[in-house]
Write a structure and sequence with these properties.
Layout lengths: L1 H28 L6 H24 L12 H29 L8 H17 L1
Helix pairs in contact: 1-2, 1-4, 2-3, 3-4
Length: 126
């Protein structure tokens, strides 16, 4: 039972970090005034980030580890998982979706970089 509660707590923290880092990245990139063209994506992407980051981090085995014994190798795996999600969301919103819907405004590179940094820092911190 304790292991289940530990994993639920870890997922809740990661979900909170995913949402906060994405939303804060938009606020920082646009200095608190998100343009109308980006508002839908600024609201939608934090919700997508919960499932997306959880899925990618699960594929990388992040939730199989004991975080009390976190080392350099674990940091590299976490760096890879956070980077893969950030690159994936950038490619999907800037290359794939606009090829089907030319009026779609994808995620700005600045938002991706800020979100990546926040996620990496906060997940390793907590």
């Amino acid at each position: 039972m304790n292991k289940v509660l530990y994993r639920l707590g870890q997922f809740f923290l990661d979900a909170t970090i995913a949402v906060l880092s994405c939303f804060l990245a938009y606020l920082i990139r646009f200095e608190g005034d998100i343009p109308a063209a980006h508002q839908n994506l600024a609201v939608t992407l934090p919700l997508i980030a919960i499932v997306g980051r959880f899925s990618i981090q699960s594929l990388f085995g992040i939730y199989q580890q004991i975080w009390r014994l976190f080392g350099v190798g674990d940091s590299i795996i976490l760096l890879q998982a956070v980077t893969v999600y950030s690159v994936l969301i950038f490619v999907v919103t800037r290359l794939i979706i606009p090829s089907f819907n030319p009026s779609f405004t994808g995620i700005p590179l600045g938002v991706v970089v800020i979100d990546w940094g926040f996620c990496l820092y906060l997940i390793e911190l907590l």
